[in-house]
């Protein structure tokens, strides 16, 4: 029997879904047939077929209003993708307490805030729902320069398991631990295409992910194909990061990676 992801009867909300990884996720959910709503702090043009609403996901009242608006317009909310997040580079010794508070607020507390609002709807509707939290490999290894972000993402992985136990059986909660992903800003972020190519040589699969590849993992977790998957943190990182000592040793010996 052929397997296919069919979300044609689902309503999905993707936070931070108008650009980057979030946009890629929204596009895949649309391809799977879902009705998709994206949100962000400002007006934006969502992928074709989606609608966009403005919301500061750190504001509980705004989040509740957003979720109520989605349900009022579409009748239900089946999938929440907590994608909004990120952090600029800042060494921990130099960053202010306010900076750290904002990073943790966006990457961890906003995830919980949105999940609470979605769960309140999903628990009451036929079929329940699925929540997918976009986490990061930064949460499972040291994250120098983005320490508060890494700590927040470690919290997201822990939160995922706790919510899965609290909110089952009606609501499944999973996370995707995302590695390096190519977006429109990748070359600028890492200092050019040559540097990006060198970084990609350290990844076992030989390249960074495409945003659609993250989207397909999300679509699977949101679908009935993952009906017995809850509380999982799924690694999507191309095989992981090679130890630095091994990379240096191979480079010194002239060995191919």
Which helices and strands, and how do they pair?
Blueprint: E1 11-15, H1 20-31, E2 35-40, E3 51-54, H2 60-74, E4 79-82, H3 97-122, E5 129-136, H4 147-167, E6 171-178, E7 181-182, H5 186-190, H6 193-200, E8 209-210, H7 211-222, E9 233-236, H8 244-253
Parallel strand pairs: 1-2, 1-4, 2-3, 4-5, 5-6, 6-9, 7-8
Helix pairs in contact: 1-7, 2-3, 3-4
Would you give an account of this structure?
The protein has 257 residues and is α/β, with parallel strands linked by helices. The protein has a single domain, classed as Rossmann fold. 42% of the residues lie in helices and 17% in strands. The protein has eight helices and nine strands. Strands 3-2-1-4-5-6-9 form a seven-stranded parallel beta sheet, with helices on both faces. The protein has a two-stranded parallel ribbon with strand order 7-8. The longest helix is centred in the middle third of the chain and has 26 residues. The N and C termini lie far apart (39 Å).
Question: What's the short story on this structure?
Answer:
By secondary structure, the protein is of the alpha/beta class. It has 8 helices and 9 strands.
Using the CA coordinates, give the radius of gyration.
19 Å
What is the CATH topology descriptor?
Rossmann fold
Helix share, percent: 40-55%
- CATH class, named Alpha Beta
Number of domains: 1
- Bin the strand percentage: 15-25%
The helix count comes to 8
Give, in spatial order, the strands making up the sheet with the most strands: 3-2-1-4-5-6-9
Series of H and E elements: EHEEHEHEHEEHHEHEH
| Mean pLDDT metric | 95
The best one-word shape is: globular
The CATH architecture can be named as 3-Layer(aba) Sandwich
Low-confidence stretches: none
CATH homology-level superfamily: NAD(P)-binding Rossmann-like Domain
Reported for the largest beta sheet, the result is: 7 strands, parallel
How far apart the termini lie comes to 39 Å
Q: What's the total number of strands?
A: 9
- Structural class, by secondary structure, is alpha/beta
Domain Ketoreductase: 10-184
Family: Belongs to the short-chain dehydrogenases/reductases (SDR) family.
Organism: Nocardioides immobilis
Protein name: SDR family oxidoreductase
């Amino acid at each position: 029997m052929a397997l296919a992801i069919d979300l044609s009867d689902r309503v999905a909300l993707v936070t931070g879904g108008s650009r980057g990884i979030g946009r890629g996720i929204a596009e895949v959910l649309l391809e799977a047939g879902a009705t998709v709503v994206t949100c962000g702090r400002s007006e934006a043009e969502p992928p074709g077929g989606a609608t966009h609403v403005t919301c500061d996901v750190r504001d509980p009242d705004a989040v509740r209003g957003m979720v109520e608006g989605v349900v009022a317009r579409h009748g239900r909310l089946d999938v929440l993708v907590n994608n909004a997040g990120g952090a600029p580079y800042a060494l921990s010794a130099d960053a202010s307490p306010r900076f750290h508070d904002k990073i943790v607020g966006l990457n961890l507390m906003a995830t919980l805030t949105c999940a609470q609002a979605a769960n309140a709807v999903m628990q009451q509707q036929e079929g329940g729902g699925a929540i997918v939290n976009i986490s990061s490999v930064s949460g499972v290894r040291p994250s120098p320069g983005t320490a508060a972000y890494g700590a927040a993402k470690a919290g997201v992985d822990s939160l995922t398991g706790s919510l899965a136990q609290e909110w089952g059986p009606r609501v499944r909660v999973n996370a995707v631990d995302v590695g390096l992903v190519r977006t429109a800003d990748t070359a600028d972020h890492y200092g050019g295409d040559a540097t990006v190519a060198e970084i990609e040589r350290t990844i076992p699969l030989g390249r960074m992910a495409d945003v659609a590849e993250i989207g397909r993992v999300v679509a699977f977790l949101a679908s009935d194909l993952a009906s017995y998957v809850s509380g999982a943190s799924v690694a999507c990182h191309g095989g992981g990061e090679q130890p630095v000592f091994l990379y240096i040793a191979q480079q010194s010996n002239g060995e191919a990676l």
